[in-house]
TrEMBL record:
It is found in: Membrane. It is a single-pass membrane protein. GO terms for molecular function: carbohydrate binding. Gene3D superfamilies: Mannose-Binding Protein A, subunit A (3.10.100.10). SMART domains: CLECT. SUPFAM superfamilies: C-type lectin-like (SSF56436). Keywords: Lectin, Membrane, Signal-anchor, Transmembrane, Transmembrane helix. The chain crosses the membrane at residues 39-63. PANTHER family: KILLER CELL LECTIN-LIKE RECEPTOR SUBFAMILY F MEMBER 1, KILLER CELL LECTIN-LIKE RECEPTOR SUBFAMILY F MEMBER 2. GO terms for cellular component: plasma membrane. InterPro entries: C-type_lectin-like, C-type_lectin-like/link_sf, C-type_Lectin_Receptor_IMM, CTDL_fold, NKR-like_CTLD. It comes from Carlito syrichta. This is Killer cell lectin-like receptor subfamily F member 1 isoform X2.
């Protein structure tokens, strides 16, 4: 019984102390609490904004625009009209992309699967007079262990693909092309 009375007494004293402390809060105290609350809201808003931007970035990285095909980390667009290599190159630049740069045989197989017919198609490979070598539009050299170009390697030669092979053609020839980003 004594413990019960002691508990009741301590509980009443604690409640009185809390109500006195609450009534002693000044306008300045409320102002400080409000300022801290606003800071916390600002921080949580910033964190939410960062998370939303990260989500949007992930969505954009995963999705390709309409009429583009997704394969691994890239998007591909297959033309229906025919142009010279340089006109095809410029068309891709206008779409914020570049002519196709083939990384490996798996990518080549993907490309061949989606070519609508077996005609030649421009890719982003040309023979540069300065380097006197086959060079991809991203500046990297052709790995001749990975891909072999059939035909002469000479100035004004650009590359096309047909049936998983790469051919040397005059850059002024007109073919369909593939843009990539």
């Amino acid at each position: 019984m004594e413990d019960k009375e002691r508990y009741m007494t301590l509980n009443v004293q604690w409640k009185k102390k809390c109500s006195i402390q609450m009534s002693e809060l000044t306008f300045k105290d409320y102002s400080v609490m409000l300022h801290r609350y606003k800071i916390l809201l600002g921080i949580s808003g910033t964190v939410n904004s960062i998370l939303a931007l990260a989500l949007i970035s992930l969505i954009l990285m995963v999705l390709c625009p309409p009429e583009w095909l997704k394969y691994q980390e890239n998007c591909y667009w297959f033309s229906n009209e025919m142009k010279s290599w340089s006109d095809s190159y410029m068309h891709c630049l206008g779409r914020n992309s570049h002519l196709l740069v083939i990384q490996d045989q798996l990518e080549m197989a993907f490309i061949q699967k989606y070519l609508r017919q077996s005609n030649y198609v421009w890719i982003g490979l040309n023979f540069t007079s300065l380097k006197r070598a086959w060079t991809w539009v991203d500046g990297s050299p052709l790995d001749q262990k990975r891909f072999f170009v059939k035909g002469p390697a000479k100035v004004n030669s650009c590359a096309s693909t047909k049936e998983s092979k790469i051919y040397s053609e005059s850059c002024s020839s007109v073919f369909k092309w593939i843009c990539q980003y």
